[in-house]
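Input record (one chain):
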Amino acid sequence: MILLRRLLGDVLRRQRQRQGRTLREVSSSARVSLGYLSEVERGQKEASSELLSAICDALDVRMSELMREVSDELALAELAQSAAASESMPAPVRPMLNSVSVTSMAGVSPDRVTIKAPAEAVDVVAA
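The corresponding structure, as predicted from the sequence alone:
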């Protein structure tokens, strides 16, 4: 399960560490207890929007930038989770494609052909 609070905490910690700042410095500037900020960074506590705003101000980072980075991390985590789930599915449940052989097609690049299946589009690249 992907926990948003963990992803958010990881991004906050990276932002702080990029600046070479300590938890104590940021907690003091944001007016939040050191222990609570530590728990937020470790993904153990959910940060309110007010607290996030104070931490972003202390780090001199726009909240939109922070959330964009969290969104990117979330997208990667979802892709990894999806890939792991599809590998663990039994063979009959996993979607299967039959092999396709293309000898020549007028006006189409021989290196790339798109095959449209009912549920998805698959790009085939020549080896």
